[in-house]
Amino acid sequence: MAFCKAGNIEIAGVAASVPDNLFTKEFFSKDFGMENVEKFVKSTGISSTYRALKEQTASDLGYEASEYLLKRLGMDRSKIGIMLFITQSPDYRRPASACVLQKRLNLPMNCAVMDIGLGCSGFIYGHYTMEVMLQSSDSEYGLLILGETASKLVNPKDKSIAMMYGDAGAAVLYKKTIAPDRYTLLKSDGKRFKSIILPAGGFRDMYPERKIVLCSDGIERSKYDIYMDGLSIFSFSTSEVPEAIKEYLEQTQSTMEDYDLVLLHQANRFILKQIARKLNIPMDKIPISLDRYGNTGSVSIPLTICDYVNSTKLEKKKLRILAAGFGIGLSWGVTSFDISSEMIMGIIKTKNFYAEGVISPSEY
Q1: What pLDDT sits at residue 30?
Q2: Which residues of the chain have pLDDT under 70?
Q3: Quick one: which of 86, 141, 223, 250 could link to 122 by a disulfide (CB 3.0–4.6 Å)?
Q4: pTM of this prediction?
Q5: For residues 3 and 247, what is the distance between their CA atoms, to the nearest angstrom?
């Protein structure tokens, strides 16, 4: 267990974005039949998602959320000294997409930027990384950007997950201030790295043939398609995650009553209900966004708080949040933070993409 502390940092704003490209359950009925689609909706709670356009990348979605947030806040970008980009869908193998975002957002040269290649736990890890980097630097502000386009990596004939993944981006602004210490619990289990995996395209196996094989779950895939061991992930999510939340509450000497909301990674509704049951959390304390946005990976926690404030029309209020992210890696974590509801800017839809990002060798 890595139980970590940081202080004198606050979240000064949050915004999210989704592609302006809605996929409803009716779209999938022609491939899987409406009966199978309805079974999927019933078991996962996901009835629609937003998917990136062919030209859109995770950094495009993160950029749009960031632009929206910084403009709404009237932010002086020269004061942003750290920028982190959480994604497993980078623009290029090299360089880091954070460098592209730095250029597009017009952040100063003395701003430290880097990618963090984590999935569903990415917000928790990125949140703590930003806190400690900002706390120990001479910078006043830090920008955490998250983006994911996992739908591009799914076999469209894979009925187990074809309807699961949604694409989205988010931006979270951090500021130095006088604030109490906050704590984060981080865990991982690399022994189960195969539980969610896409083997092709990395340097271990860069260009394998696109051979379709019948997998143990009865579904045909190639090495270029995401595979998820559903039973293993369900067991992990409903056992290790509640235990980690219990550990966090014990370590921080807090209870569920101390928090206004519990933000959980939006894996599927049944998993969220099982976690709530094991921890005796009322479901009205756990906002749900996956029914309309699907599983958006690292983006799901900031997306969900934006959706919650949008949908409830919440008046100005300081919210104390407990958050837990968990999934691919396997990797998981728990943290807490305060945020004023008026600093949560909501969700925008976008068809924009970075045309200059398509590079030809003739430009070298």
Answers
A1: 85
A2: 1
A3: 86
A4: 0.97
A5: 10
